[in-house]
Amino acid sequence: MTLSTRPSPSHTQMVNGDIRTIQRQRTWQQFKHLQKGFENTRGVQLFYYSGTIEILRPGKAHELFKTVIGMLIEAFLLDREIEFEPTGSMTQELDGVAAAEADESYQIGPFRLAVEINFTSGDITKLDRYRALGIHEVWLWEDAVLEVYHLSREGYEQCDSSRIPELADIDLTVLSTCILLGETSRVQSIKQFRAAHPA
User: Which pTM value belongs to this model?
Assistant: First the structure.
Protein backbone atom coordinates (compact mmCIF):
# COMPACT_ATOMS: atom_id res chain seq x y z
CA MET A 1 0.00 0.00 0.00
CA THR A 2 1.36 3.42 -1.00
CA LEU A 3 0.37 6.53 0.88
CA SER A 4 -0.35 9.62 -1.20
CA THR A 5 2.00 12.55 -0.64
CA ARG A 6 -0.21 15.03 -2.47
CA PRO A 7 -1.39 17.95 -0.31
CA SER A 8 -4.94 17.80 0.98
CA PRO A 9 -7.36 19.73 -1.25
CA SER A 10 -8.64 21.59 1.84
CA HIS A 11 -7.17 22.50 5.21
CA THR A 12 -7.50 25.18 7.90
CA GLN A 13 -4.79 27.12 9.76
CA MET A 14 -5.32 29.04 13.01
CA VAL A 15 -2.61 31.53 14.02
CA ASN A 16 -2.84 34.62 16.27
CA GLY A 17 -6.62 34.54 16.09
CA ASP A 18 -6.69 34.34 12.28
CA ILE A 19 -8.53 31.40 10.73
CA ARG A 20 -7.49 30.70 7.15
CA THR A 21 -9.04 27.91 5.09
CA ILE A 22 -7.31 26.81 1.91
CA GLN A 23 -9.24 24.99 -0.83
CA ARG A 24 -7.23 23.68 -3.76
CA GLN A 25 -8.27 22.37 -7.15
CA ARG A 26 -11.17 24.82 -7.42
CA THR A 27 -12.53 26.59 -10.48
CA TRP A 28 -13.38 30.26 -10.91
CA GLN A 29 -17.05 29.27 -11.10
CA GLN A 30 -16.78 27.52 -7.72
CA PHE A 31 -15.14 30.62 -6.29
CA LYS A 32 -17.92 32.88 -7.58
CA HIS A 33 -20.54 30.56 -6.10
CA LEU A 34 -18.75 30.64 -2.73
CA GLN A 35 -18.38 34.41 -2.97
CA LYS A 36 -22.12 34.79 -3.47
CA GLY A 37 -22.76 32.66 -0.38
CA PHE A 38 -20.58 34.98 1.72
CA GLU A 39 -21.85 38.29 0.31
CA ASN A 40 -23.87 39.12 3.46
CA THR A 41 -21.23 37.82 5.89
CA ARG A 42 -19.09 40.45 7.61
CA GLY A 43 -15.49 39.87 8.64
CA VAL A 44 -14.61 37.30 5.97
CA GLN A 45 -12.11 37.89 3.16
CA LEU A 46 -12.02 35.75 0.02
CA PHE A 47 -9.15 35.22 -2.43
CA TYR A 48 -8.67 33.24 -5.61
CA TYR A 49 -5.65 32.49 -7.77
CA SER A 50 -4.42 29.54 -9.82
CA GLY A 51 -7.12 27.13 -8.71
CA THR A 52 -6.79 27.93 -5.00
CA ILE A 53 -9.43 29.60 -2.84
CA GLU A 54 -8.51 31.21 0.49
CA ILE A 55 -11.12 32.10 3.10
CA LEU A 56 -9.78 34.35 5.87
CA ARG A 57 -11.51 35.24 9.13
CA PRO A 58 -9.18 37.87 10.64
CA GLY A 59 -8.59 37.89 14.38
CA LYS A 60 -8.29 40.85 16.73
CA ALA A 61 -4.52 41.34 16.25
CA HIS A 62 -4.91 41.25 12.48
CA GLU A 63 -7.59 43.95 12.58
CA LEU A 64 -5.55 46.08 14.97
CA PHE A 65 -2.40 46.08 12.84
CA LYS A 66 -4.21 46.73 9.56
CA THR A 67 -6.05 49.66 11.17
CA VAL A 68 -2.85 51.16 12.61
CA ILE A 69 -1.05 50.88 9.26
CA GLY A 70 -4.01 52.51 7.50
CA MET A 71 -4.14 55.26 10.12
CA LEU A 72 -0.46 56.10 9.60
CA ILE A 73 -0.66 56.06 5.79
CA GLU A 74 -3.70 58.32 5.86
CA ALA A 75 -2.14 60.70 8.39
CA PHE A 76 0.93 61.05 6.16
CA LEU A 77 -1.19 61.85 3.09
CA LEU A 78 -3.64 64.14 4.88
CA ASP A 79 -0.85 66.12 6.58
CA ARG A 80 0.50 66.86 3.09
CA GLU A 81 -2.94 67.57 1.60
CA ILE A 82 -2.48 64.73 -0.89
CA GLU A 83 -5.74 63.45 -2.31
CA PHE A 84 -6.30 59.70 -2.24
CA GLU A 85 -9.12 57.21 -2.40
CA PRO A 86 -9.33 54.68 0.46
CA THR A 87 -10.73 51.46 -0.97
CA GLY A 88 -10.38 49.30 2.16
CA SER A 89 -11.10 45.60 1.62
CA MET A 90 -12.88 46.20 -1.66
CA THR A 91 -12.88 43.10 -3.87
CA GLN A 92 -10.43 43.43 -6.74
CA GLU A 93 -10.92 40.93 -9.57
CA LEU A 94 -9.65 39.90 -12.97
CA ASP A 95 -12.43 37.70 -14.30
CA GLY A 96 -11.47 34.04 -14.36
CA VAL A 97 -7.93 34.69 -13.10
CA ALA A 98 -7.65 36.26 -9.66
CA ALA A 99 -9.57 37.94 -6.86
CA ALA A 100 -8.36 39.56 -3.65
CA GLU A 101 -9.64 41.55 -0.70
CA ALA A 102 -6.63 43.33 0.77
CA ASP A 103 -6.66 44.32 4.43
CA GLU A 104 -6.37 47.94 3.31
CA SER A 105 -6.08 49.38 -0.17
CA TYR A 106 -5.69 52.81 -1.71
CA GLN A 107 -5.78 54.59 -5.03
CA ILE A 108 -3.14 57.33 -4.89
CA GLY A 109 -3.03 59.18 -8.18
CA PRO A 110 -2.59 56.49 -10.86
CA PHE A 111 -1.15 54.01 -8.36
CA ARG A 112 -2.92 51.20 -6.53
CA LEU A 113 -1.57 50.09 -3.15
CA ALA A 114 -2.53 46.94 -1.23
CA VAL A 115 -1.67 46.31 2.43
CA GLU A 116 -1.69 42.79 3.87
CA ILE A 117 -1.16 41.48 7.39
CA ASN A 118 0.44 38.04 7.20
CA PHE A 119 0.15 35.82 10.29
CA THR A 120 -0.50 32.61 8.34
CA SER A 121 1.29 31.60 5.18
CA GLY A 122 -1.15 30.73 2.44
CA ASP A 123 -0.60 27.99 -0.13
CA ILE A 124 -0.33 30.47 -2.96
CA THR A 125 2.03 33.35 -3.44
CA LYS A 126 0.28 36.56 -2.48
CA LEU A 127 2.47 38.58 -4.80
CA ASP A 128 1.58 36.43 -7.81
CA ARG A 129 -2.08 37.09 -7.09
CA TYR A 130 -1.56 40.84 -6.87
CA ARG A 131 0.64 40.81 -9.96
CA ALA A 132 -2.22 39.23 -11.91
CA LEU A 133 -4.45 42.06 -10.68
CA GLY A 134 -1.92 44.73 -11.71
CA ILE A 135 -1.52 46.20 -8.21
CA HIS A 136 1.39 48.63 -8.38
CA GLU A 137 2.65 48.14 -4.83
CA VAL A 138 2.07 45.66 -2.00
CA TRP A 139 2.99 46.30 1.63
CA LEU A 140 3.30 43.14 3.73
CA TRP A 141 3.38 43.28 7.53
CA GLU A 142 5.02 40.05 8.68
CA ASP A 143 7.12 39.16 11.75
CA ALA A 144 6.97 42.77 13.02
CA VAL A 145 8.54 44.13 9.82
CA LEU A 146 6.92 46.04 6.97
CA GLU A 147 8.15 44.92 3.54
CA VAL A 148 7.42 46.93 0.39
CA TYR A 149 7.16 45.31 -3.05
CA HIS A 150 6.79 47.39 -6.21
CA LEU A 151 5.64 45.95 -9.52
CA SER A 152 8.08 46.08 -12.42
CA ARG A 153 8.04 44.35 -15.79
CA GLU A 154 9.82 41.35 -14.27
CA GLY A 155 7.50 41.10 -11.25
CA TYR A 156 7.61 42.52 -7.74
CA GLU A 157 10.86 43.94 -6.43
CA GLN A 158 11.44 44.47 -2.71
CA CYS A 159 12.29 48.12 -2.06
CA ASP A 160 13.85 50.14 0.75
CA SER A 161 11.15 52.77 0.28
CA SER A 162 7.87 53.13 -1.55
CA ARG A 163 8.09 53.91 -5.25
CA ILE A 164 4.70 55.55 -5.19
CA PRO A 165 5.88 59.19 -5.38
CA GLU A 166 3.42 60.44 -2.75
CA LEU A 167 4.68 57.85 -0.22
CA ALA A 168 8.38 57.79 -1.10
CA ASP A 169 9.42 59.95 1.88
CA ILE A 170 8.06 57.52 4.48
CA ASP A 171 10.90 56.01 6.53
CA LEU A 172 9.98 52.32 6.64
CA THR A 173 12.07 51.65 9.77
CA VAL A 174 10.25 54.42 11.63
CA LEU A 175 6.94 53.22 10.23
CA SER A 176 7.55 49.66 11.48
CA THR A 177 8.43 51.01 14.94
CA CYS A 178 5.27 53.11 15.02
CA ILE A 179 3.13 50.18 13.87
CA LEU A 180 4.41 48.13 16.82
CA LEU A 181 3.86 51.07 19.17
CA GLY A 182 0.31 51.28 17.86
CA GLU A 183 -0.41 47.88 19.38
CA THR A 184 -0.52 49.55 22.81
CA SER A 185 -1.09 53.26 22.04
CA ARG A 186 -2.50 54.67 18.85
CA VAL A 187 -1.98 58.22 20.15
CA GLN A 188 1.74 57.71 20.81
CA SER A 189 2.12 55.83 17.53
CA ILE A 190 0.83 58.70 15.41
CA LYS A 191 2.63 61.34 17.49
CA GLN A 192 5.98 59.58 17.00
CA PHE A 193 5.30 59.01 13.31
CA ARG A 194 4.39 62.65 12.70
CA ALA A 195 7.44 63.85 14.64
CA ALA A 196 9.65 61.82 12.29
CA HIS A 197 7.72 62.98 9.18
CA PRO A 198 6.94 66.69 9.55
CA ALA A 199 4.72 68.00 6.78
Answer: 0.89
